[in-house]
Amino acid sequence: MPRTTSPWNRTMGTPIGLCGLFTAVVMIAAGTAAVAHPAGQAKPATLSQPTFDPAAAEVVDAFHAALERGDTTAAAGFLSDALVVFEEGGAERSKAEYAGHHLPADAVFAKAVGSHITRRSGGVGGDLAWVASEGRTQGRYKERDIDRITTETVVLRWASGAWKIVHVHWSSRAAPPNP
Questions:
Q1: Which of 23, 80, 91, 179 is the most buried (most CB within 10 A)?
Q2: Mean per-residue pLDDT for 128-157?
C-alpha cells in the first residue's frame, strides 16, 4: 500500500486539549502495551484489533495520497481545525498553523520521495480512533538520498458523520545500511 510520510513528524489535536488527547490515546493503546513489549523486550506485536475501523485508516491514506499529488487543499480537508502536530520535539497547534507552515513542504516532499507501509494497527473507542503505521521512505530530495524507517500515529475524531484527523505524530530514523 503506497504512502508517503512527512519530512517532519506531526501530531494533530482536538478541542479536548493535549492533556485530554494524550490521556485518550494512552487509554486506547494501554491494552496493547503489555503485548507489544512483553517482559521489557522491544518486540513488535501482531495483534488482532476487533475494534479497528478501516474507514479511519482510509482517511489517513487519503490524506497521504493528497500530499503525494501535491494537493494541499484536499490534504487539509481531512484535518480538524483543532489539529496538533508533533514532530522532532516541535508542535503545530492548529490546522491553520500547520497549513501555513509545514503542509506545503510536506506535499513537496511527499511528491518527491516514495514511501510504503510495512505494518499497521489501530483501534477505536467512542468517537476517537487511532491508526499506527510503520514504514520506510526512500528516494531523493533536494539532491540528497533519503532512506528512513518511519513511524506515524494518527488520532481521528468522528464528527459530523466523518473521521477528521486531530493529531499526528511522525518519527523517523536512518535506515540500517544494506548488507
A1: 80
A2: 97
